[in-house]
Amino acid sequence: MDRKIKVLIAKPGLDGHDRGAKVVAMALRDAGMEVIYTGLRQSPEDIARAALQEDVDVVGLSILSGAHMKLCPKVLKLMKEYGINDKPVFVGGIIPEDDALELKKTGIFEVFGPGTPLEKIIKSIENAVKK
């Protein structure tokens, strides 16, 4: 890829904790990616629309509220409606292993829990964009 990988980092739902999202956003930026951070309390519609408008390569969702099983499929559904369901979507947060497996079945390419090395997140995104 000749241009920078463009990543949208979003905080869907009512969760007000964004330290992890900001840490990941800074790590991706430091790795040479272009990062757009939507801020707190975004609706799935806001996120899908931003992904479309910004023409991103990857979407990252940070969810600590426990609403990941509702929010992730909704974002994926809206991205499909907008014709951008070819964009990989990853999720970070407190997500039980069983839920992580289910999310992957719905189309999430990776689920990162607390303490995931930033280098692993960076490499996963680079590999997902290459596909």
From TrEMBL:
Pfam families membership: B12-binding (PF02310)
PROSITE patterns registered for this protein in UniProt: B12_BINDING (PS51332)
Domain of life, source organism: Bacteria
GO MF annotations, alphabetized: cobalamin binding; isomerase activity; metal ion binding
InterPro entries: Acid_CoA_mut_C, Cobalamin-bd, Cobalamin-bd_sf
Cofactor(s) for this UniProt protein: adenosylcob(III)alamin
Alphabetical keyword list: Cobalamin, Cobalt, Isomerase, Metal-binding
Residue span(s) of domain B12-binding: 4-131
NCBIfam families for the chain: acid_CoA_mut_C
Protein name per its UniProtKB record: Methylmalonyl-CoA mutase
Organism: Kosmotoga pacifica
Biological classification of the source: Bacteria, Thermotogati, Thermotogota, Thermotogae, Kosmotogales
